Amino acid sequence: MIDLKRFIPDGAGIWWGQASAEPAALVHALLDQIGELGPHRAFCGLTWDQRLTRELPPELELMSYGALGELRRLSREGRLTVVPCHYSALPSLFADGSLPTDVGLVQVSPPDEDGMCSLGVGADYAADAVLHTSVLLAEINQRMPVTTGTPKIPLARFAATVETDRPLAEAPAKAPDDTELAIAGHVAGLVEDGDTLQMGVGSLPSAVLDALTGHTDLGFHSGMISDGILRLVDKGVLTGARKEIDPGVIVTGAALGSAELYDRLPELPVEFRPASYTHAPSTLSRLRSLVSLNSAIEVDLSGQVGSEVRRGAYIGGVGGQADFTRAAASTGARSIIAVRARSGSHSTIVPALHGGVVTTARSDVDYVVTEYGAARLRGCDLNERARRLIAVAAPEHREALSRGAQA
């Protein structure tokens, strides 16, 4: 096992890669040795590592841009510090020291003949953070694929390495339910041939991608990709032929999917770019065909979107939602917010956001879609917005919402 005392000074700030690119061998070594290292502050993004959340020692203060994946457990227990920020801000937050950059932990591909390693399936914020990090430690995983789009890292740049040969972590898979299939059908009706798509991962985005098989020449520019793109590539739907920039190329920051997705990456027209490119306003403003699709926890009757807090607990994050919805609404084609009409017995269309936190401004929302239809808000006054949103709310809540709108 690597002796981290040699590389992590007292009180150093640490960051590491996320999701399928999380360097588990190094993170677990940190958990094992933190008692000897003393108190440290660390930043990570989405994690599926239950050991990290169930065995987080008191010496490690964990911070993130959201409560995503297993981090929700820490959030509910009051053990996660959330930095609310647009995903596009992460590069500058690393650059100015607002986020820790003393030590970085990354998972990379084996070095090529020139001694260069790829960040593989996780360029996103890691590629930007590397530029400002004093000490880099790497898990060299024999199964990490070599990807293009982001400069490789010289093996000599790493202060130390550990070698592994393990499968990449796979995204939790859940089949879309009837509600998500209904939402996906409505969303597909808002997508035109030649559009460039942005969306997240999960069962709803997967259902949307499957609902687009009748379209042609779609493009993709997003912070992450999932298995759904494989089906559209195989059917000749996802060609990127009409993209204003990066034509013919699927642009992403990370891959979150199955072993099949990771294994097929070398044959796909995919480029992995840093967050400073994928989410930058200067990049997105050039995509006139951009259609953003993002989810929500709740939407109020004016169209404000809450995607961070539910019933007093921080369970989401700003992420790239505001970056992409703003671009899609102002310089792109259209921005779409998809939300189930119900959360348990509660309506997700509400007179006012219960969380009190606005993730996306109402002025950046073109459509709100539930299983009951699509409400077009673009160009509507507040009264008309409320009327249209009530029409796609759960039927049993519409009367109460109407009274709330009048109040």
Please work out how many helical segments DSSP would assign.
Answer: 14
Overall SS class: alpha/beta
**Biggest sheet statistics:** 7 strands, parallel
Task: Order the strands across the largest sheet as they lie in space.
Answer: 4-3-2-1-5-7-9
Strand content: 15-25%
**How would the global form be characterised?**
globular
Q: Which fold does the CATH topology of the largest domain refer to?
A: Glutaconate Coenzyme A-transferase
CATH homologous superfamily designation of the largest domain: Acetyl-CoA hydrolase/transferase C-terminal domain
How many domain units? 2
CATH architecture of the largest domain: 3-Layer(aba) Sandwich
**What is the terminal-to-terminal distance?**
63 Å
Mean pLDDT value = 96
Counting DSSP E segments of at least 2 residues, the number of strands comes to 26
Report the uncertain regions.
none
- What is the CATH class of the largest domain? Alpha Beta
Radius of gyration, rounded? 21 Å
Estimated helix fraction: 25-40%
Tell me what the structure shows:
- This protein is α/β, with parallel strands linked by helices.
- The protein has 2 domains: 4-164, Glutaconate Coenzyme A-transferase (3-Layer(aba) Sandwich); 178-406, Acetyl-CoA hydrolase/transferase C-terminal domain (Glutaconate Coenzyme A-transferase).
- Helices cover 26% and strands 21% of the residues.
- The strands form 8 sheets. It has a 7-stranded parallel β-sheet, with helices on both faces. A 6-stranded mixed β-sheet has the order 11-10-16-21-25-26, sandwiched between helices. The chain has a 3-stranded mixed β-sheet with strand order 18-17-24, covered by helices on one side.
- The longest helix has 14 residues, at 24-37.
- It is globular and about 65 Å long.
